[in-house]
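Chain A, query sequence.
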Amino acid sequence: MRWTIHSERTLYKDQWVHLASADVELPDGRHLDHRLIRTAAPGAGLVIVIDGEALMLWRHRFVTDSWGWEIPQGSIRPGEQPADAAVREAHEETGWQAEGRIDPLLYVQPSPGLLTSEHHIYTATNAIQTGPPQDHYESQKVGWIPLADVPHLIARRDIVAGTTVAALCLLLSTPSP
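Chain A, predicted structure.
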């Protein structure tokens, strides 16, 4: 059943986020004053997997005041292809440059009941370290995490970011070629 939007008004807007309130009619005729967040740009990420290990970032998220392992990802620049953004972001955040084939893994809308955010996630199986991360402020450390440890790390809440969890679980559930 489709909900009907009768009107929408801006509550706040800047270059990163647009918070709005929408008058939404449910199929049974009831109305909701529903909040929605439009994000500035879609995101892209890259899971580099070599010898059964994924390159990840250990980082602090101040919004939730939590630490966790995440895949490298960030915004897609205007005119940039999602796969190119994923490779660029991984290199900037980790110092590792993906080489060779980049394969699509996952397209996800992390919270479609509230956000317009969308993430394009790719995989690579070859990379070289070119130096330290350019965006050194992105994480406390960069590390290679065995894919076999991922379920335990999720259970221990060392991996909680939704897109990272989805990407790694999909990788673990897909047979290797």
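The longest strand covers residues 4-13. Residues 82-94 form the longest helix (13 residues).
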